[in-house]
Amino acid sequence: MTPVLPSAALASAARVVRRVLAQPAAAVSVAFLLAITVLAFTAGLLGLDPLEQDMLAMLEGPSAAYPFGTDELGRDILARVIFGARTSLTTAAGAVLLAAAIGVPMGLVAGFFGGWRDVALMRVVDLMLALPGIMLALALIAVLGRSQSAALVAVGLTGVPTFARVARAQVLSLRKRDFVTAVEAFGATSSYSMFRTILPNSWSPILTQMVVLSSVAILLEAALAFLGVGIPPPTPSWGEMLRTGKEYLYDAPTYAVLPGVALTLTILSFDTIGRALSSVLEGRDTAVPQPRAERA
Amino acid sequence: MEGPPQMPNPVLSIRSLNVTFVGSGADIPAVRGIDLDVHENEVLGIVGESGSGKSVTALAAAGLLPRTARITGSVLLGGRQVVGATADDLRRMRGQDVGVVFQDPSTTLNPLMPVGDQVTEGEVAHGRLARADAGVRAVDLLREVDIADPDNRARQYPHEFSGGMRQRAVIAMAMAGRPRLIVADEPTTALDVTVQAQVLALLARRQAETGAAVVLITHDLGVVAEVAHRVAVMYGGRIVETGSVRDIFARPRHPYTAALLRSAPRIDVTAGRLDPIPGQPPTPTDLPAGCTFHPRCPLHAGRTRCTTEDPALRPMGPGQAAACHFAEEMGARDPLSPGPSPRGEGRPVAAASLPPPGGRDSERGSPPPLLVVDDLKVHFPIRAGLLRRVVRTVRAVDGVSLSLAPGETLGLVGESGCGKTTTGRAIMGLIRSTGGRILFDGKPVHGLSRKGLRPVRRAMQYVFQDPFSSLNPMLSVGDAIAEPLRIHGLYDAAGGATWIATLLDMVGLSPSVAHRMPREFSGGQKQRIGIARALALKPRLLILDEPVSALDVSIQAQIVNLLQDLQKDLGLAYLFIAHDLSVVKHISDRVAVMYLGRIVEEGPKADLYGRPVHPYTQALLSAVPAVDVDPAAKRRRIVLEGEIPNPSAPPPGCHFHPRCFRADGRCGVEVPAFRPYGDGATRTACHHAGPLTVPLTPAPETLGASP
Amino acid sequence: MIGFVTWRLAQLVPVLLVASALIFFMMYAVPGGPVAALVGENATQEQIAAVTEQFGLNRPVAVQYVDWLLRALTGDLGQSLHSREPVLKLIGERLPATLQLAAVATLIGLLVGVPLALASALSQGSWLDRALSGWSALALGVPTFWVGILLILLFAVELKLLPAASAYVPVWQDPWQMIRNAILPAGTLGLYVSGIFARFLRGSLITEFNADYVRTARSKGLKEGTVVARHVLRNAMLPFVTIVGIMLAGFIGGAVVTEAVFTYPGLGRLVIQAIGSRDYPLVQGCILVILAIYILINLLVDVLYVYIDPRIDYG
Questions:
Q1: Which chains touch B (3 or more CB pairs under 8 A)?
Q2: Residue B391 — pLDDT band, cuts 50, 70, 90?
């Protein structure tokens, strides 16, 4: 059966997109993210190379040849910023999907069945929440070692409690709604109630959370790299560039500034879109920030 | 009755008031040209359905409209202009010239401030009361509204007050500054009927003591009849009729007023069939051209004047005015006799009378009951402490027994917290019962798992109270109705889309709406969809949980009629759960009254309403405000003291004894058995059951001491 | 009330127990484990055997955990593998620095965020509201380590007004030096948290502005200022207190990055160093202390509620 008419779902998705884009700040953010994504995945075709070293031009300021200057190995900072976007966006996307894939079922099960399942799962969530996000990620890196997948997993696991809580809150509020009770009165099974009725009606807060958490994930990935435990070099990463740039503050001040601009704009864009989504989907004027979103 | 003598200077005088809400979308005209006067010692009732502009009018009178409201015209309060007044002037008028009683007492008080402080806060702010004297004054004010132990109560916070007590405190607050005008916006809508009776009596007493003018906003015609001197009926942002209560109820001159009176089920009249107003009340954003009532009006009859010209309010007799081009055609017809049959209502009225309900059993020779509930108990444990031990038990349902024959309607009535909804859900298996037996069609269904209940649920379906919450917003109407069939894998067997179309037709909707989404429908239409969905599996029993209480009066009648037609055509049995005694009386064959988890009285409709024997039933029935303005018929009223106790700590013995006027020592110790009374069909649980002979308390003074 | 506090303190025990076990077993699951960390990469078989023997690392992990636990109960969290100093002593040296930074940062966040939220909520929908909301988004969106770098560039590199590396100076020793050293890291964190505070408080103020009891207060003829101060603000503060508590707790151990930017000697940098040198007893001790502080601050918030919300009664 088709629980949701595809045309109806598409129409409502199109309506949401239109209303988000009607907010100027959100439209600008979407445009910026689209541009940086396209750029990051086509930069190689443009002849940009983040690894090529120019020994004659180390730690140079912006110039015609190197608009963003060069780093301590004579590499093009502009190229590294653009390739850094690729690292940042893929890690964040993977981390958010991982967090949702673990957190949403956890919250669904905890909220729907209650009882000991609820107590056990939520205790795990509480414990994860008791450590600041960066601390949890650091502890995980300490165990997993330093690699790109370790960074992804560490960042992703810190997002699990958020999704678990959002999904559980959704279940609890939807279970009070009569249409969920109605499905049970028709004789539906538990899994029908959970996956055919509750889950489809929970997509909006989960989607909003995914966008908001993308900004948190990008920040956390950069923070780990900045602390020297993120994705290992020579893969270009904004956090790593800020870390090295800080060493050369006196020699090349733009080195530490320009990657930060890219990082900040990306984070702000996700945050802005997240708030716009929340106002469109939930009719809320303010997206209440996740206290969990420690940014250290 | 002409009300109080007309005085030259009304307390409130409104002229050509227009209120439009301007926002991001189209402007919303909420009030469109209103004139009214209210004098000292006078109660004006403003009646209307949702979206009629009655609450906006009241807020305008108090200068409380939000900034998004564009207001033109004149509102004179004690001779001073409210429209366009500065914030400071408005502030001085509030609390001094006008006090407001709002609808929901659970949210109108600040949860973080002691009630006493809130009651006197206004007087202190206006400099009429020294801060040092506020404590004493608060106690006095609370005492004036009959709050027991006012010394301690003044120091307590709102969450320590019951709903009725909170509304008393709000009344004390509104009247603290002795304002000349009280605006009461649906003051009893959120309260139970026995508490409503207390609060209305209090409001009447305080009004008489202070001589204030009162504007009472309500949707309940009974409350108006009970309490007001004059009535203004609003529709589509305008006053369509105004006059004395007596004239309006006896000789309505506007077809809407007449239709409204006919459509409401009445507790004091046994009518065969309700006469609903067809269609929907208009929304302010989409008002019909000309007279806003013409699409639903029986007088319109295709005349172009109704569709082109908005009629002005014109005098129709002493003190009465109506806004209808053809008001003269209304004549002096009794509003209770069926009017000209409204267009759009398919069935002729005469053909719709139901078979006499009482006669069924004898005709068929007592068929085996479809549903038997025997000593049903539903207890909810309250856990607390380290080990999550059960510290208390809420006995939501505590020994309920009832039976229902095929094709019969049993009404289950009671006030909030009595356990009626829990009973319905436990029968449906949505809540696990703690004890007792439930037999459906002779087979036990209590304690079954989700899986075990599946076959039962094909024959027993549920209709929910809130049509806005009972439809999955992600499913189209057709899919929503098909969902029960698909869950049971019967969609194709039942006939697929053809059967869905048939169901939509049965509930009075066009089959073409199947592809539309629920949000496109009004409350009444959604309830029709909910009923169609419940019928999809061809059940034999419907449990109807307050199916009309969320709907406007004129729509309620449509749904009630639909239910009666369906029952006749399909031979359905109904368990009709409601708090509204008038609706229950209208639709039921037998009625059971619940109080704190137990049935206190059960019997055939005529017996229960005509000769109730349990003191609670007697009090409950007498508390219902009736559309009844004949002073000779003014019923004596039993005003119960106190409110319904917390079901987690019910009184010992008979649960009702602390509020009962017949209770003696035995009642506080011994639980009365539920057993037949006399040799009739009535069963009751009372040590002192018997018909009411001597009225125990005199009727409370009504606001307008009726001549 | 005393019973409630005792009960909540008792809850600390299982949390710390579970957490410590988790950390302990995770650390020992690392390839090479603590031995590799102790002896370095080029160690001989003999060295490994000696170290394993010396630290009792050849015993089963469970035995080692119980051993650790029994000593932890006596207040001994073990020794740092690196400096051979007691873990508690090392933490004790860093904790005051972190607490001072967290307190100053939260204070700055409140001083900036609360007025922002009030101005924003009182002018809801206006250009001022939009500007202030944009500012909050910026404040909480910009990464603190980048803000830190910019501040160092400006105040230390260009203007040479403040030190680029912030030392810990207790406020009671030398308030002026404390401010000079703490203003950059605390300002960085304070700016960030002011964005969170402003956004959250604005939302809860707007919710309360639309509450029925506020309309009641207005209908009594109270001045708008009184309505806001006595009715709106107090109710809006209720959920806000929780957020302040969470953020304060988050700064203890969560300020790792800011501490790194300003090379501030706080608890966060101790953890980083411990992880870098695989100093497992130290990592474990730090995490347990951070957990305990988080739970204690939450307890403090709950106790506070008894005084500000009459509906709450822990019996």
A1: A, C
A2: confident
Contact C305, C244 (CB under 8 A): no
- Chains touching A (3+ CB pairs < 8 Å): B, C
Amino acid identity at C119: A
Torsion of CA C88, C91, C95, C96, to 10 degrees: 70
Architecture of the structural domain at B12-228: 3-Layer(aba) Sandwich (3.40)
Confidence of residue B109 (pLDDT cuts 50, 70, 90): very high
Q: Kindly list the residues of chain A whose beta carbon comes within 8 Å of any beta carbon in chain B.
A: 1-5, 8-9, 177-179, 181-190, 192, 197, 200-201
Reference C203, options C308, C121, C116; nearest CA is: C121
User: Which among C153, C206, C271 has the least Cβ separation from residue A253?
Assistant: C153
Dist CA B324 CA B306 (whole Å): 8
With a pLDDT cut of 90, the percent of chain C lying above it is 16
Q: What is the C-alpha separation between B528 and B509, in angstroms, rounded?
A: 8
A145–C31: do the CB atoms touch at under 8 Å?
yes
Q: Which residues on adjacent β-strands are paired with residue B218?
A: B47
CA B238 and chain centroid, separation: 23
The packing angle between helices C280-308 and C267-276, to 10°, is 150
- Spatial strand order of the sheet with B443-444 comes to B389-404, B371-384, B435-440, B443-444
What's the predicted TM-score (pTM) here? 0.82
- Smallest CA–CA distance, residue A193 to chain B, in Å, is 11
Q: What is the least distance, in Å, from the CA of A247 to any CA of chain C?
A: 10
Nearest Cβ partner for C215 among B64, B125, B174: B64
d(CA C111, CA B530) in angstroms, rounded, equals: 54
What pLDDT does A1 receive? Answer: 41
The structural domains of chain A, ordered by start, are 44-51+66-281 (1.10.3720.10)
- Can the peptide bond before residue A234 be classed as cis, meaning omega within 30 degrees of 0? yes
Cα B255 to its chain centre, rounded Å, is: 23
CA distance linking residue A264 with residue C142, whole number of Å: 5
Per DSSP, the three-state class of B519 is: helix
Tell me how far apart the alpha carbons of residues B170 and B183 are, in angstroms, rounded to a whole number: 12
Nearest CA-CA partner of A201 in A170, A227, A229:
A170
> C140 and A289: CB-CB below 8 Å?
yes
Q: Which CATH class is domain C87-308?
A: mainly alpha
Those residues whose C-beta lies under 8 Å from the C-beta of residue A220, and which sit 6 or more positions away, are A95, A133, A134, A137, A155, A158, A295
Confidence check: pLDDT of A9 > 80: no
The confidence score (pLDDT) of residue B15 equals 93
Kindly state the average pLDDT of the residues B273-292. 85
Each residue's pLDDT tens digit, B542-575:
999 999 888 888 888 889 999 999 999 999 999 9
Is C139 within 8 Å of chain A by CB? Answer: no
Domain extents in chain B = 12-228, 238-335, 612-702
Please list every residue in chain C whose beta carbon sits closer than 8 Å to the beta carbon of residue B66. none
Query: What is the Cα–Cα distance from A166 to B64, expressed in whole angstroms?
Result: 37
- ipTM entry: 0.82
